[in-house]
Write a structure and sequence with these properties.
This is IrrE N-terminal-like domain-containing protein. With about 170 residues, the protein is of the alpha/beta class. It contains five helices and four strands, in the order αααβββααβ. Helices cover about 45% and strands about 15% of the residues. Bound molecules: zinc ion.
């Protein structure tokens, strides 16, 4: 039975699989992040400004929304049946692209983060920035000074816990 969202079970699963044998060191996780970024670069195959749109196509379970009055650069959260990334509509396009990639790394890391409780929020933020920077390598990157400014923006609701209707 085919539904209209022809989900190629692909990109997100493949990206997560790269982190399948985690050792909890930050160095190992950075290596994995670099590999994931390399894979994503191969999958994206579009100019940087089209990255968010292309990502939505690659990841059918991902919705990217531009919000006018977002008090931060971006957030990511699960609300069945989609992962949502919300981006500040007033940020410059290059910043938005970086933010989308940063948030997307949080989504990739979500299952791992549940398990690797030894790492702190700052570590996951650094990994997300690192991933986004690597994914944009050989391309324009935004001002590094703004990179680490998002904290605690991943509000992960657990799927199947019966809360979020609508
Ligand atoms: Zn973050």
């Amino acid at each position: 039975m085919n539904t209209t969202d022809n989900t190629a079970p692909g990109a997100l699963t493949s990206l997560r699989a790269l982190g399948g044998q985690p050792d909890s060191s930050l160095a190992a996780l950075r290596r994995i992040a670099a590999e994931q970024a390399r894979l994503l670069r191969d999958l994206l195959t579009v100019p940087v400004p089209q990255t968010p749109a292309r990502l939505s196509v690659l990841i059918p379970s991902l919705l990217i929304e531009y919000i006018t009055q977002l008090p931060t650069h971006g957030i990511a959260f699960w609300a069945r049946p989609y992962w949502h990334i919300r981006i500040s509509a007033s940020d410059p396009s290059a910043r938005q692209t970086f933010t989308v990639l940063h948030q997307f790394k949080h989504i990739i890391d979500h299952p791992l983060r549940q398990r690797l409780t030894a790492l702190g929020d700052a570590d996951w933020e650094e990994l997300a920035d690192y991933f986004a920077g690597q994914a944009l390598r050989e391309k324009a990157s935004p001002d590094p000074s703004g990179w680490a400014s998002d904290t605690s923006e991943l509000q992960a609701a657990t799927p199947g816990k019966g809360g979020t209707k609508k």
